Amino acid sequence: MYLDYFPYPSLRLHQDRMLDAVYDTVSSGDHGIIMIDAPTGTGKTSSISAALAARPGKIVVAVRTVSQIDIYIDEISRIWSKTRHKPEIAYMVGKQKICPLEREFRGESVYAGCARLREWSRNYVSSRIAKGSSSIYDPASDSMPEEEPGYRTFCPHYLKSREGFELNGAVHFRRSGRALDVVESLKKRPISPSQLAESCQGICPYEIMSLYAKDADIVIMNYSHLFSPDFQDIIFQWLEMDSEKVTLIIDEAHNLGDAVRDMNSRILSMRMIDLAETEVEKFEGTLGQARLDESRERASWRREGIRIIRLLLPRLKKFLESKQQRMAEGEALLDADLFRSFIYADLDDIEEALSNFSDVAVAVADLNLAEGDRENLQGEIQPSLALVLLFLNDIERAEKDDSYQSKIAVSGSGGKRQARLEVNNIDPAANIRRITDNINATIMLSGTFSPLEAYELYLLGVENRAKKLSLPNPFPRENRLILGTRKATTQLEVREDADNREEISGHIRSLIE
Ligand code: SF4
C-alpha cells in the first residue's frame, strides 16, 4: 500500500490514521473530499505518499506561497532517495519570482515587459528567416547579439526556447530541441525554485516549467491557478489534464475560503479606465480612418463598439469622480439601479451594448494592443478594456447571485482621495466546488482547521459533503507552553515585514536563552 512510498523509518503518532484516510479517499475517487485538521508535528506533508500510492492520474498541490513549494520538493526528494519510486514534480511560479530579466523592467510590470520582449523576439526570428537561406530558425545555431540589460530588443532566454519555421508564407513556432532536452534533464532529480534558473541552461525557466508541468506526476501551483476565474476554465486544458483523474491536495486549507473570495472579486479603478482609453486610441490608430470609413456592413461592429466604449468609459470616470469628491472615506454598498441608470442612460439594450464592447476588447487582444499588468496562462496581457467589461458583467451578476456584493470604496493618502468600485465574492463555496465536484478527490490539509464543521460550511456550502479527520496534538501536554505576544503575528500579509520578523525571532531567542 502507501508504505511503499513512505520515506521514513517509522510512522509518527496518529500519522497512520491520516494516511489511511487519504489513501481511502483517493482510491475511492467519486469526487470525494477529506478535510484534515492535523497540528504541527503530525507529518501532514507525507499525505502525498498515500496520494501517490492511490492516485489514478496527476496530483495537483495547491499552495498559497512559494515557500510551501520547497517543503514538497524536500518530501519528494526523500521519496526518491528512500524508496524505489521517482515521481516527477513540476511547479508553476509567477514570472516575478523566476524571470532572469525581472530587475531590468523599469516603469512596467514583469508581465508587460515579458509580453513586449516575446513579441519582439518573434519579430526577430521572422526577420532572421526572411533574411536567411533556411526556412527554419534554430536558436542553437544563431549567434545572438549581446544586448545591454534594460535596453533589449528581444529576450535571449525566450529565443532559446523556440524554433521558428516558415510554412505557407507564415512563420510558426515550436519548442526548441534544447528546451526539450532541459525538460528531460529535470526528470533526473527534483529541483527547487531557487535552483531552477541554473538548471535551465539559459532558457526561460517559466517556459521550461510550463512544458514540464504537462508530463509531471505532481504539479504544484498557486491557489489562483485553480480557483481564479481568469485561469480556472483553461488550466485543465492547458496542462492536458483529465479532470476525473486529478487528485488535489490543498495545503494550508484554512486560507482557501478567503483566498478564493479575493480572487473572485473585481475592482474598477481610475487607472484601469485610463489604460482602457489608451487601448481604444491605439485600436483606432491601428485601424486608421480609412478602415473605420469602410462599408457599413463590414465596419458596423467596430464603429458601434468604439461608440459604446467612448460613451461608457467617460461615464464610469464621472461616476468615480463624483464619489471621490462627495463620499466620506470608507465603504458603502453600491446602488446598482442608480449605477445602471447613470452608466447606460440612452442605451436601449445593455446586453447588445456590452457585446459590441466585447468585440473591440477581443480585437485589442488579437492585435496585441493591451495595456495593463495582468496576464493569462499563455502569458498574454489581459486588455484593460476586457477587465472593465468583466467588471460591468460582474455588477450584473451580483444583482442575481447572493454570493456577490457590489460596493464603492473611497480611501485617502497624502491628501489625495481615490474611489474604486468593487464586486466582492462573499461566499466562496460555489467557486471551490466547481473544482472539487469535478475531480477524482480532494485532500484539504491544515494545522488550524478547527472546528472542521464550520470550515466545511464556509468552503463547501453544505454539511456532510466531506469526510473529516481531526488529529490530536502529538506533543505530550507537559512539553507544551502557550504564550501570547502583543505585536508579533504570523498573518500572511505581514510575514515578510522586517520588524515583525525581528519581533518573532527576538521572542524565540529569549525563550531559548
Ligand atoms: S520570456 Fe521568460 S526570461 Fe524572457 S522576459 Fe519572459 S519570463 Fe523573462
Rg calculated over all Cα atoms: 26 Å
CATH superfamily placement of the largest domain? P-loop containing nucleotide triphosphate hydrolases
Beta-strand share of residues: 5-15%
Question: If strands are numbered along the chain, what order do they take across the biggest sheet?
Answer: 3-7-2-8-13-1-14
The largest β sheet comes out as: 7 strands, parallel
Q: Could you tell me how far the N terminus lies from the C terminus, measured between alpha carbons in angstroms?
A: 45 Å
Helix coverage percent = 40-55%
CATH architecture of the largest domain: 3-Layer(aba) Sandwich
What would a concise description of this structure say?
With 513 residues, the protein is of the alpha/beta class. The protein has helices at 15-28, 47-54, 67-82, 95-98, 110-131, 156-159, 177-186, 193-199, 205-215, 223-227, 235-238, 256-263, 270-292, 296-326, 336-343, 350-366, 384-400, 429-436, 452-460, 498-512; strands spanning 32-37, 59-63, 89-91, 136-137, 162-167, 170-175, 218-222, 247-250, 266-268, 330-333, 404-413, 416-425, 441-446, 467-470.
Topology, element by element:
Layout: H1 15-28, E1 32-37, H2 47-54, E2 59-63, H3 67-82, E3 89-91, H4 95-98, H5 110-131, E4 136-137, H6 156-159, E5 162-167, E6 170-175, H7 177-186, H8 193-199, H9 205-215, E7 218-222, H10 223-227, H11 235-238, E8 247-250, H12 256-263, E9 266-268, H13 270-292, H14 296-326, E10 330-333, H15 336-343, H16 350-366, H17 384-400, E11 404-413, E12 416-425, H18 429-436, E13 441-446, H19 452-460, E14 467-470, H20 498-512
Helix pairs in contact: 1-2, 7-9, 13-14, 13-17, 14-16, 16-17, 18-19
Bound molecules: iron/sulfur cluster.
The site of iron/sulfur cluster has 12 residues, from helix 5 and helix 6.
